[in-house]
Amino acid sequence: MKFATFADRAGTIDAEPADLEIVAHVRELLADAGDEIEIVARFAQGRVFPAWDSTTLDIGPSACYEAIARAAGTNVSSNDVEERLAEVGEIGDVAARYDFGGQQGLGAFTGGGTDDSGAGGGTGGNGTGGDLTVREVAETLADLAAAEGSGSHDRKVDLLFGLFNRCSSEEARYLARLVLSEMRIGVGEGTVRDAIAAAFDVPKERVERALQVSNDYGRVARIARDEGVDGLDAMELDVGRPVQAMLAQAGTVTDALEEWETAGVEWKYDGARVQLHYDPGDGETRVFSRNMEDVTDALPEVVEFADERLESPVILDGEVVAIDEDGSPLPFQEVLKRFRRKHDVAKAREDVSVRPVFFDCLHAGGEDLLEEPLTTRHDRLRSVLVDAVDETGSDAAAIDDEDIEGLSLLWRTDDPDEIESIDADALEAGHEGIMLKNPESTYSPGRRGKHWRKRKPDVETLDCVVTGAEWGEGRRATFLGTFELSVRAGEDLETVGKVATGITDEKLEELTDLLEPHIEAEEGQEVDLEPAVVFEVGYEEIQSSPTYSSGYALRFPRFQAVRPDKEPANADSIERLERLQGQ
Ligand code: AMP
């Protein structure tokens, strides 16, 4: 397809406000794209490379202005281009206002042009363009992206100049937008999906699935056209090509248990998402970020982990966490110091080391697992990771999950108290909290669905008086824990719940010192406390309940802080509970 044809169609789409009509135009564009369908499908979305490919043109706006200025004639400078841009506000409009063509020079050749390219030659070239194909544009941009090292800036500008020099106004408009990632003609991912389905008469869901596994709109368009639905269904994950990460919504334990009955519960690690692709066959280990950027070189620990512990091709999804010398997690900011680092990685590694924790397995044993339920995928993950532990040939099933390095534990439970204690352990171990996952759910790349929920931070908090507590057990026997919370009811205090979670051992010790002087009575493990200390607590919900004397119960109360600035007389009242419950 000629680039002029593409530009013409892009112009029509650009001018079309109605989504359905846009899909119809893209459908025609794809149907007419011939051999260049892959490129056309990408260009329409403003992409030069497939979505899985993190290659960038690595060219700044100023280099693009320079190329435009050179192609526009000797009397035009980059500054002129910038000034016009300031007036017009959009690079496509700027490029379309110049007359290109006929500028001679190295770039005209390297860009694939000839002496007489650009119709006419000479500074008066009328820029009718017309001979450039979308393939030439794609190939030249690939060369431009590949230019590295000293002299690469000039080479990039030369190549781009060569292209602009052969453009008509409309071609220049869309070339400039493509190069600067500003295509913006209203063609999103859903548009291309629908257009592929309509153009080649294949069901949308099958196109969607093929897109999820391949992350390549061009390839999916070609296969839909040439091989139909069977071809699409035969598309599989490729080890080495990233998949979009499944995302989580905020949510509550209450909702999770209501919807799924049994919830999958995992620790939420405060790190950065990584997708590990390991293939011993081609000796390649690649690590990708949440945005599918290749971050392999920045994270040698993950590569070493794969080399030491994996044996067959796999795709694993997980989190990379920064750790201190004894392996305890460090805050997210520390991971960032490592994550996209290109230079001095060894030095950075000395300062902050990282370790991967995997919570999902998308491909193993030659099989794609996206459509398997979470529990099956987690079992596969376990067996992939256990192999390395099980060198002695002992019974792999007998190995404790906690002893499998790199495995994020998955609990299945319908018991809110167990979820609370998993949450408390996660916090105590220095992690962010918990993730709740539907154990039956498939892996939906790129989706922020309901099947994965990060536990919502508490929006409201209550200031409650601590009126009782219990001595702990085992290693916590000398600490007070499980604190009874009360709110004001006129001159009295009425109970509203108990809080035991969100408190580390260190904090428990501090709270015990603070509360012990206020013990009024003890019976077994239980103590009554004189009202003196106020806790700020978070919760998921306020329920009417006969369990506590206030007539209300806090669902999933969590300790936030002591309020040394508050007396019991300033604690929250039953009236506030009533108001909050009504909200
Ligand atoms: P957020 O970044 O707050 O939207 O939370 C979702 C992110 O939590 C995911 O993209 C992961 O990077 C991270 N995460 C940490 N632990 C887990 C886990 N066990 N399962 C899924 N995601 C996790």
UniProtKB/TrEMBL annotation:
Q: Which Pfam families match?
A: DNA_ligase_A_C (PF04679), DNA_ligase_A_M (PF01068), DNA_ligase_A_N (PF04675)
Its GO biological process terms? cell division; DNA biosynthetic process; DNA recombination; DNA repair; lagging strand elongation
Q: Which Gene3D superfamilies match?
A: DNA ligase, ATP-dependent, N-terminal domain, DNA ligase/mRNA capping enzyme, Nucleic acid-binding proteins
The secretion signal range is none
* Cofactor or coenzyme needed: Mg(2+)
Q: Which residues form the ATP-dependent DNA ligase family profile domain?
A: 347-489
Query: Which PROSITE patterns does the entry link to?
Result: DNA_LIGASE_A1, DNA_LIGASE_A3
Q: Which GO terms describe its molecular function?
A: ATP binding; DNA binding; DNA ligase (ATP) activity; metal ion binding
Q: What is the catalytic activity of this protein? A: ATP + (deoxyribonucleotide)n-3'-hydroxyl + 5'-phospho-(deoxyribonucleotide)m = (deoxyribonucleotide)n+m + AMP + diphosphate
What is the E.C. number? 6.5.1.1
Q: Which UniProt keywords apply?
A: ATP-binding, Cell cycle, Cell division, DNA damage, DNA recombination, DNA repair, DNA replication, Ligase, Magnesium, Metal-binding, Nucleotide-binding
Q: What NCBIfam families does this protein's entry cite?
A: dnl1, LigA_Halo
Q: Which PANTHER family match?
A: DNA LIGASE, DNA LIGASE 1/3 FAMILY MEMBER
Q: Which family does the UniProt entry place this protein in?
A: Belongs to the ATP-dependent DNA ligase family.
Full protein name: DNA ligase
Source organism: Natrinema versiforme JCM 10478
Q: Which gene encodes it?
A: lig
